[in-house]
Amino acid sequence: MNNNTENTMSEARNDFGRKPITRKTKKLHPRVDLTAMVSISFLLIVFFMLSSFLSRPTSMDLGMPGRGRGCGGGGCFFGTDVRMMTLLIGKDNHIVSYFGDMPYLYEEPKTLTYGENSLRKELTERSNRAVKHTGDPKRGLIVIIKPSKESDYGHLVTVLDEMAITKIPTYAVVDISPEEEKLLADK
């Protein structure tokens, strides 16, 4: 026999009617899941929008004293005395309010208590009077709050709540002076 036919015969397999053992592999197309990428990019966009909003410069209105000095019956006072009210907070629901600088008071100091009929009523009346005097709602009452060493934190919070209730936009908490401590003790 021919060598060439022997090789072909030995290489040929008999499958006896069965399918061949080696299967054809399916060609899979690679697929990238972008779900995580979309959620991360959404979070980054939100973060940068929020951080750019918070980093914007903001301005604040300042209540500055008037330029001129005026002298009235109670002594000389600055032009903002009609707008500037000082509250001295003492112990046991004791509040003293006055207008003007300490040596030159615009009016006689008043003794007030917490509540609608005393402190809130005084703040509302003075605020309306200040707006009427200036003619500008933005230039309303300025309240300086000075808690004494005998007052407790709850009294200060109550006065700050009254500022929010009466919608006084400009107020500050400042240290009390020895002269004001004496005035608070006398009243």
Automatic annotation (TrEMBL):
Compositional bias annotation for Polar residues: 1-11
PANTHER family membership: BIOPOLYMER TRANSPORT PROTEIN EXBD-RELATED, EXBD MEMBRANE COMPONENT OF PMF-DRIVEN MACROMOLECULE IMPORT SYSTEM
Protein name as it appears in the record: Biopolymer transporter ExbD
Subcellular location: Cell membrane
Family recorded in the similarity comment: Belongs to the ExbD/TolR family.
Gene Ontology CC entries for this record: plasma membrane
Disordered: annotated segments: 1-22
GO molecular function, one term: transmembrane transporter activity
Protein keywords: Cell membrane, Membrane, Protein transport, Transmembrane, Transmembrane helix, Transport
GO terms under biological process: protein transport
InterPro entries: ExbD
Superkingdom of this protein's organism: Bacteria
Transmembrane annotation, as ranges: 34-54
Membrane topology: Single-pass membrane protein; Single-pass type II membrane protein
